[in-house]
Specification:
By secondary structure, this protein is α/β, with parallel strands linked by helices. It has nine helices and eleven strands.
């Protein structure tokens, strides 16, 4: 079974807090009673968007090295740190998903790589439904600066491309037998504004990243004349995911405990400058 949640138009802090709250629920249930463990066998698929646009940086990145907060303020863009790895992403004009499940789930066979492939296949199927000739990348491709790049200048295995240009990216976190994967599908060109938010004292790097984003990425808006609605994306992607994982699904909402946990995480972590700029081991459970 998959719980399918649709939460469009949320803030950056709340989006990341909900993903972690869902991860915590799955981790807690996996270590509880027999009834709890049965609940933990249920995956959660969440489909969401960002309002206002936001930059998320990878768990191990230094915020001030990657992004100038004054530029974020200038353009009305939030800044948040993810608990997943990877590089900086500007979430603007995109569809975002997260999938949470125990690695022991029968559909995953104990391997988080199965999730990567299943999500990739579901995204490809969804895009082809909308006449977009997408395909998964079979090999990774680095950007110009290795680990100093931003997310969409490099392509990982099973990430989605069209004619060699990246259309969707993803990141994972595994914790105590549970895996969280979330990723972005580019609906428009908003992600290409990211270099405007980077530190001004690195003009060459900004120019290189801008060039790479223009040449190595593509958005749905560049491929089809009419963008499907958020509801159409949600319906088609959830159907494809259910099919690829061979599970049943039910439309659901956050329960009271999950909402409370997310609100607490906004206050203590994702809406907190100490988490964004001064990561310490005490922040991570």
């Amino acid at each position: 079974m998959i719980r399918v949640l649709s939460t469009p138009g949320c803030s950056a802090a709340y989006n990341m807090a909900v993903d972690e709250a869902l991860l915590d629920t799955c981790r807690r249930d996996a270590g509880g009673t027999d009834a709890d463990r049965r609940d933990a066998e249920m995956m959660v698929l969440r489909i969401y968007s960002w309002c206002p646009p936001a930059v998320s940086i990878g768990y191990g990145q230094e915020a001030e090295k990657e992004i100038d907060p004054r530029q974020c303020d200038r353009y009305g863009i939030d800044l948040v740190r993810r608990i997943t790895g990877g590089r900086a992403v500007l979430h603007d004009q995109e569809l975002t998903y997260s999938l949470v499940a125990p690695e022991s789930h029968p559909a995953l066979g104990g391997r988080s790589g199965v999730m990567l492939r299943a999500v990739s296949e579901a995204l490809v199927e969804t895009l082809k439904h909308f006449d977009i000739p997408a395909e998964p990348a079979m090999e990774g491709r680095c950007g110009p600066g290795g680990n100093d790049d931003v997310c969409f200048t490099a392509t990982g295995r099973y990430e989605i491309t069209v004619a060699g240009r990246k259309l969707a990216g993803s990141a994972q976190r595994r914790s105590r037998g549970v895996v969280l994967q979330h990723g972005s599908l580019l609906l428009g060109p908003g992600h290409r504004r990211l270099p405007l938010l980077m530190p001004a004292h690195e003009p060459e790097r900004r120019e290189t990243i801008a060039r790479m984003l223009n040449h190595r990425t593509v958005s749905v808006a560049e491929l089809v004349p009419d963008l499907p609605s958020f509801e159409e994306w949600t319906d088609r992607l959830s159907r494809s995911m259910l099919d690829r994982l061979n599970v049943e699904g039910k439309t659901d909402v956050l329960d009271a405990e999950e909402r409370q946990a997310a609100e607490s995480l906004v206050r203590t972590r994702y809406g907190n400058a100490d988490w964004t700029y001064l990561r310490t081991a005490s922040h991570v459970r």
